[in-house]
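Purpose: get a first structural picture of the assembly so the mutagenesis plan has something to point at.
Setup: three entries, given in the order below. No constraints added.
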Amino acid sequence: MSALEIKNLYKHFDGIKAVDHLTLSFESGKITGLIGPNGSGKSTLINLLTGIVPYDFGMLVISDTTKLLEIKPYNVSSYGITRTFQDVRLFEQMPVIDNMLVVLTERGVWSSIYEKHKRYHIEKAKEALEKVGLWEKRNELAINLSYGQRKLLEIARALAMNVEIYFFDEPFAGLFPEMIKIVTSVLKDLRAKGKTVILVEHNMELIRELSDHCIVMDSGKLLAQGKPRDVLSQKDVIEAYLGE
Amino acid sequence: MEYFIHLGILVSIYAILGLSLNLIVGYTGLLSITQAAFYGIGAYATAILITSYGVNFFVSMLIGMVIAALTALLIGYVLSKFDGDYFALGSFGFNIIIFSILLNWQGLTRGPLGIPGIDRPEIFGVTVSSNLSFLILSVLTVIIIYGLSQMIVNSSFGRVLKAIREDEKAIQIFGYKTHHHKLVIFMISAVIASVAGSLFASYISYIDPSSFNLNESIFILSIIILGGLANNKGVIWGAVFLILLPEALRFVGFPTDVAAQMRQVVYGLILVFLMLYRPQGLMGEYKL
Amino acid sequence: MSILPQLIINSIIAGSIYSLVALGFNLIYGTTKFFNLAHGVLAAVGGYTVFYLSKMWGLPIIPSVIVGVLFAGFVGYLVDRTVFRSLRKKKASGMVFLVASLGVMTALQAVIAIIFSSQFQTLSTGTFKVYRMLGGVITQVQVIILALSIFIMFALAILLKYTRFGKAVRAISDDEEVSKIVGINTNKIIGRVFFIGSAIAGLSGILVGFDTGIEPGMGLSLLLKGVIASIIGGIGNVYGGVLGAFLLGFIENFGIWKISGEWKDAIAFGVLLTFLLFRPQGIIKK
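Result (structure tokens, whole complex):
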């Protein structure tokens, strides 16, 4: 089953085709590696799929049922999608625990005014933070965390959302080996639960280790897809990377 | 003694104004420079209703709050389409428009002539005529507003406001229609400012549009930037400091109109120094 | 309708003044990328300097005006040197700059009021020539305003396009970091930009002083009109600001044809808000 299908997606900036009539699908319950040289459009694609940037035209199909001609940022989570950012976007001048609680509490205006967070919100936050080893730092301001800890916090935040589709944009970049182990187990854990993970990554070892399926982009187009082992030894894929 | 009571009432009124603005600027991160407009709406609602229609003070305050809320709904809706500098500029614009209305809709507001003879409030048949009793009323109001503000910022809603301040797009992705939140806090802030306006009108007994111009909005902004953004206790201290400081100047012996301008010089310099050396203010939790 | 030509003349004069303010504002905004709310008070600085020199010291007009313009430029340069340069070094956010400029505006305006009182003063010496043109009336001062604003617009355009300084300014407007890397002394160039922009603002204040008069708060209203003009025309775009200025002049003057002149400011802001809502990038596409 396809968790998320993209049909003929197109986005251009100032004449550059960032995503060029892209058609592909992400299979549910699997980890899909999304790779390609710099500027191939991977991050742009994720931004388009999560409402950060509007696309020019195209259609998204979620779980083979919901068809969308556009996606607004505040609707993204209701479609079962969440993400982390390549440039780590946390709520800096708020403590770690608040960064977590804000994705767990009431979304409506009036219902949230009357709510102080409940115990089960804290428990859910604790669950996610413990998975990445940040529970002890819960009262630390996000801005005071180390780079690696910030990336882990973003991941914990995404986990707390408990949705179906997770986009991780270069979650491993800049992490120490111990942290890489943590993130690896988080991703495998998600797959074991039947969740859909799309992983943008430059580290090919990790791609080989983690992804069930691999999609290669180049210049906004789909270059190749298949098993990592196959795709990574394809001539045109290697050339695309060498040319960058 | 009377003098200190007078200062106490002024500090209370500006503390309420500061608390109202802090909700938008300190907690939600929106640089709004139009608070004087809602202050003015409350003041004029009370002034007109008491002098022309003999309405009870508290009823006039309530009506002022409703008008402020509706005006904020309109203004907030327009402003929510902007961010950063353009939000500030747009809010400037609204202050000027509201000020123009207060100044020029002479049929309603008597324009630059102002409205004199605003009576003191009446509670259960007793008039709050002495300044001391008005001080008690003002301080009680500050306590209520402070409590209300704390409840809001410590709730889940308050946490969302702070997230909007930090990264609005990011928090949207997690399922928040942030324009609703911004609009609601803008309305709440306007309603609180109008309460301060009603108190002011009844205390001073005469109001005119000049108290509700851009300079006033800038002054209220200075209070919260000095006292500390996103820290309500700091706001109270900011109000104390900025009201008392120029009074101290008066004792140095400047003639009254020069003293008023000296005050502005000091406020201006305080803003500059804060931005240069301590953007979070004295007790603030948020740096601009 | 015999009032039409006069409306047109008034619109053109208003547009000329606003375009001077917009030119200075856009020039500075282009390089520093923040709304400098202190820009307007330099108009008052220029106006009051001329007032001081000509009315209180009896200096002849032309030298007073020259000194006024230069002094306004100098004050603007000083403000950048003492306040904004430090903020640039700290990589402060746009809001911090805005609030700091707000502080400068408040303080300077008050200083002027202390020295000269808040009373409305006029710079003109009482006698002024009046010309009849196209069925309307235009004063000598207003003709000078029109001529000067056109002259400065062209002078600035030439400066920006053909001189080395102009190229440096455009480079910084495009990308300050890259300009530094290429070896441009950005602080020095920005300092000069502040001088020129503030001098132009000072000139506009002086001209308004001769046309109607000066008071310490005049800068804010002028600045806001200049900002509105810039936004209408496309922020940062020097020519756009001029176009926006004349458009604003016309809308304001025709707008108050049927309603009281007191509503001018409100109309101007109504226009601003409309543009911000529907076409924030301005009329001229970048």
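The mean pLDDT of chain B is 90.
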